[in-house]
Amino acid sequence: MDLGVRITYSCQTEVATTNNSHFMNPVPTRLIATDLEETAMNRPTYIYEDTPDEARRHPYYGQSVEVTPRVEIRQDVKHNLGRLIGVQTEVVQGNIYGGDIYQVQVYAFGSPSRSVDWGGLLDKETPPYKYLFPYTARDRAIFKGREAEIELVTRQIKEQRLVVVYGKAGVGKTSLLAAGVIPRLMEDGALVVKLQDYTQPLEQTIRDALVASPDQISISLPEGLPLPDVVHTVYAVTKRTLLLVLDQFEGLFTVYDKRRATTIESLAGALRTVDPESLRLILVIRSDAQDRLGSLHDRLPDLWSIPIAISPLSREQAQTAIEAPLAELGFPSGVSYVGDLVANRLVPDLDALTPNDPDRISPSHLQIVCYWLYQAACTRRPPLIDEELYLELKGPEGIMATYLDTTLKTRLSTQRRLAKH
Question: How many C-beta atoms lie closer than 10 Å to residue 394's C-beta?
């Protein structure tokens, strides 16, 4: 059976290139928030993790992209996460459509394992530091410093069906999954559905994401299909493991009791009846809510078999997260750090921002501070982040004070405008 599938992240519409007995003919596809190279892409929707409401952006972009596929089929390789099927797309024409890609995202990648040029897939306008924007799979090339955690989560989900990932708010759990673990599993051939909306039936949310555009991915999933049947159908069509990433799982405990019970029963039923090769599950939850999972142990007995804690960055990880994106990709801005500024000044000063957690650096602090330094350096000639610029911005403490002051003024201004209306 010849099959090639390529799906990118989107709430409403996905991408597929297909050529097998289930479909009459290979079809051109429209691309939604595509991962293809050399595509002029408008800025995607951004929702930030643990940030003020006014920091959120919801830009919309619309246009269509037509893809003519060339499918290269390799010999099927058995793997814990299903089969690896190679597929490439050559021709991209037209424009791009997009919408809210955050609440539900679908990821798959058909290229041969571990051969993806993530640097080539990076949005050309993306800076090396994300500030308050969340990382996505496209940012794999600049997501640095979490290699050990990526390897640990990836290994565990290949060895067991259910993995819990937990950590404090703002520690970077969502970014770790989106830009680290998910790209690695995409390379291994998994079909990933990542969601964080628990107000609707779980199987309905997954179904809606997969069938939103039948001309792009031809999976027939009738309304009301239970989760085990959804999984069976997806695997029958794609021959890929369906990996469900349930992000911000603490949100499940904010919905009414009947919806929560139905969701848990759906998960339990799928894990009980579906072949392990067809389904894997990652739950991502804040550490201050993890005790709530105790009530689910009877239905999900493997919940706490090997939980994985995510901590703030160590000093070594922080230095890697700061230096590696610039060093490896060579951004056209030419910005660079001078001497040992990162190791001797920046990392220690970032550490000082969290005195109650010594030798640990908040990823949020790192992103805000480094983004400001980078943007300031871009206006200088030569574009260097040196001692002079560092002192001018008053280091991490001064940058964070300015950021918080700006955020407060923005919030007060917004409240005043709302009050007038």
Answer: 13
Asked whether 95 and 79 are in contact (CB, 8 A), the reply is no
**DSSP string covering 104-144, please?**
EEEEB--SPTT---HHHHS-TT--SS-TTSPP-GGGGGG--
Cα angle 173, 56, 408; round to 5: 100
Question: CB neighbours (10 Å) of residue 407?
Answer: 15
Q: How far apart are CA 10 and CA 62, in angstroms?
A: 13
In terms of DSSP bridges, do strands 162-167 and 191-195 run parallel, antiparallel, or are they unpaired?
Answer: unpaired
Q: Which amino acid is at 138?
A: R
- 330 has a pLDDT exceeding 50: yes
Q: Is the pLDDT of residue 54 over 60?
A: no
Which residues, 6+ apart, have CB-to-CB distance to 118 below 8 Å? 140, 141, 183
CA separation for the pair 137, 121 (Å, rounded): 9
Nearest 5°: phi and psi at 420? -70, -25
Strand partners, 67: 29, 92
Contacts of 261 (CB under 8 A, 6+ apart): none
- C-alpha 88/C-alpha 69 separation (Å) is 7
Higher local confidence (pLDDT), 79 or 235 = 235
| Tokens 């952006």 sit on residue | 57
**Whole-Å CA distances, 57 to 45, 367, 371, 412, 416:** 7, 17, 17, 18, 20
Contact present, 47 and 54 (Cβ < 8 Å): no
